[in-house]
Every structure is written in structure tokens, then in C-alpha cells.
Amino acid sequence: NKINFDTLDFDPSSIEYANFHHPTPDCYLGGTVTAIVRALRSTGASGDAIMGLQARAFASGDTIDQAFGTAATATLTVTSADKFYDIAIGAFTPAGSPVGGQTMFYQMYRDATAGGDNFGSDLRVVEVALEFNCGRFGSDA
């Protein structure tokens, strides 16, 4: 019953970053994005880990070297049992002028040097699920 995962391991003693990108859904109306970061602990350690996520939208012709938007962070309490964890990252606003169909670049990090991050082991990120504002279909009339 061994389950194999590809993971991004975030260190307990320094801030480490990972970047990824993909197009936004065509229905995306701009505005905030939320996320669920799915992670595993790497050892029997327990404590709190602080994860952050921020983004930048790019349209055709945009300059590449631009700042990400303000990050949203969340604290995950990791117990000593083997578990699969969901970390709910609250709403964050991507920099740029995001609309549906644009490429969005994301920067994820563990804020290991923050005072509240005391989880003494790597946090292993397995996936990130993103939720976009696609508005309502139809009419309220």
C-alpha cells in the first residue's frame, strides 16, 4: 500500500519559493483567487507551518519582470500522525490586470522564519487547487 507522490519540500529553517503557471479559466472575471494547498509532513515532527501564495497576470505584450501581487498566508497545524493536510489560503489579488484566458504566474512559499512557524521539518506540498471568480450564470431577474 505504498503511495508515491511528487512533492515540493519546503524547509523548516529558511524561506523557500516555488513558481508555477497556467492560463486562467475563460470565465474568470478578475479579482481575487483562493487556493487549497495539499501537503504531507516529512517526519514525525509536529507544530505550525505558515504557507503563502501570490500571483501575477500577464497579457500579450506585457513585460515579464514584474512584481507579484500581495500574498495571502495561512497557518497549518501539523500533528505527529501521518496525515494528508489541506491548507486553505484565503483570497489574494493577483498583480496585473487579470481576466479570463490570461497566463497567471504564481509564487508559493513557506514563511519558515516567521515567529509563528515552528514546525521543525520539511512540509511536502503535493498539489495546489485554485478557485477563480467566474461570476454567476444567468440572471437574478
Can you put this structure into words, describing what you see?
It is built from no helices and eight strands. 26% of the residues are buried. Strands 1-8-3-6 form a four-stranded antiparallel beta sheet, with no helix packed on it. It has a four-stranded antiparallel beta sheet with strand order 2-7-4-5, with no helix packed on it. The chain has 141 residues and is mostly beta strands. The mean pLDDT is 90.
Helix share bin: under 10%
The helix count comes to 0
Outline type: elongated
Oligomer: single chain
Radius of gyration: 17 Å
Low-confidence stretches: none
Strand content: over 45%
Q: Features of this protein?
A:
141 residues, mainly beta, four-stranded antiparallel β-sheet, 8 strands
In short:
Helix content is 0%, strand content 47%. The protein contains no helices and eight strands.
Q: What's the structural blueprint in terms of helices and strands?
A:
Blueprint: E1 8-10, E2 16-23, E3 33-41, E4 47-58, E5 72-78, E6 84-92, E7 103-110, E8 123-132
Antiparallel strand pairs: 1-8, 2-7, 3-6, 3-8, 4-5, 4-7
